Amino acid sequence: MLESLYKLYWYISLKKIDEKKIQDLKKERLKEIVNYAYENVPFYRKLWKKVGISPNDIKDEEDLKKLPIIDKKTIKRNYHSFISREYKDFVNQLNFQFLFFRQTSGSTGKPLRVYFDIPTKAYLDAVYANALVYAGYNPFKPLLYYWWSMRENKWYSKIFGYFKKIFVPIHWNELKQLEFMQKIKPEYIYYYPSQLFFIAKYILHNNVKLNFKPKAIITHAEILTETMRKTIEEAFDAPVHDEYGSNEFNRIAFECKYKLGYHVPEDALIVEILNEDGREVKENETGEVVITSLLNKAMPLIRYRQEDYAIKTNGKCEIAYPIRIKSIEGRKQHSINKNITQKKLMELLVRICKDFWKCQLFFDSQLKAKLVVVPWRESGYPDIKPLKRYFKEINVVFSEDVMKNEKTGKCILVEKYSKF
After folding, report:
1. What are the two backbone dihedrals, phi and then psi, of residue 151, each rounded to the nearest 5 degrees?
2. Rg (CA), the chain
């Protein structure tokens, strides 16, 4: 109950926030979290002392670059040293009256559990809720929600219909999902882009007449390419807005209804986009995403390498949060390099396979690839010439379906394997 009240309070408060207030909060909270981490988190105190940096050296975002970058491997090797002394006993006792945790999917190795204090969790949930509203969602209307965990709605959703979710099970195939959509006629859809793309292609190929017209579609959890976006928008006759998040930080960036780029909630976190030398890339350049949480005291993540690529931009619209990201380019692990990213390969893939229902590309470090296609009855053979520019060897496999993660429901359209 307390967590829900926190969330509702911050949701209402954040709707009134302006650009100046956000920048003031960012500066104030950066100094606060750096001081807190130095005093309460053993790993940071030891590391920063070793490199000769004290909290007094960090006064603003520019100073943040003086601090070393950490990554998932660093945390796993020193896990208990990342837990705040203030919350250590709660972690040991698994006392969830004062703690909440999220766990990464483990796509880049063993899953990582990140703990959050309850006020931070509520604040981040409020940021997430506002991101939906900025994309055009009406919080008093149900949200069709494709998700791996079939959770119960919160008390305020049950009583007031506020942020009510209608869950779609991940084990349903696309035709059953479409049948369910036709039954409930959703005004707002929150979905993985791959699943919605496959449904959209089925609708267009079979001239399915929808008996509903969504007001807004929000995609998340996977990469959305421009061809995928246009296909979904054509099939559903509705605008598509994308979000970028992770279990380590909740919502990192999001598109608003104007779709000018990805807004970053800088009252909650700082996003850097860096080149190989650790310097900020220029506008419209691709780099690695590095994130600093400004709120979480249970397990602060300061200059954490997210292992994603993104294209930097700087922009504004009527929403107070600044636009810092032009494009989310995908996982570094599933890219060839920062110029040939997972997203660029996905865009090429879906164009090549425009005459097929589904497709998926796997490749290894030797640049040998396997292209899996799910054909329509009249499909021929895919033109793989454009892929030969990037891969030494391509094996085409016709299949009844593509591979989907049984736990999360995600379908990674371009994925790098050590071997396959």
Report:
1. -90, 160
2. 22
Residue showing tokens 């349903």: 172
Enter the pTM of the model.
0.94
Helix (H, G, I), strand (E, B) or coil at 390: coil
* Residues 83, 299: Cα–Cα separation, whole Å: 5
Assess contact for 219 and 243: CB atoms under 8 A. Answer: yes
Identify whether the C-beta of residue 369 lies closer than 8 Å to the C-beta of residue 395. Answer: yes
| 304-315/286-293 β-pairing | antiparallel
3-state secondary structure of 48: helix
pLDDT in tens, 299-309: 999 999 999 99
Amino acid, res. 140: F
Helix (H, G, I), strand (E, B), or coil: what is residue 190? Answer: strand
End-to-end CA distance of the chain, in Å?
48
Q: 53-98: per-residue pLDDT in tens?
A: 999 999 999 999 999 999 999 999 999 999 999 999 888 887 777 8
What is the distance of C-alpha 251 from the center of its chain? 7
The β-bridge partners of 312 are: 325
Q: Are 208 and 231 within 8 A, CB to CB?
A: no
| Look-up of token digits 């001239």 | 207
Q: Which residue has the higher pLDDT, 154 or 243?
A: 243
CB 248 within 8 A of CB 102: yes
Beta strand 113-117 pairing with 165-168: unpaired
Three-state DSSP state, 217: strand
Backbone angles phi, psi at 245, to 5 degrees: -150, 175
Distance CA(164)–CA(87), nearest Å, equals: 32
The answer to whether 286 and 329 are in contact (CB under 8 A) is yes
CA distance 237 to 319: 25
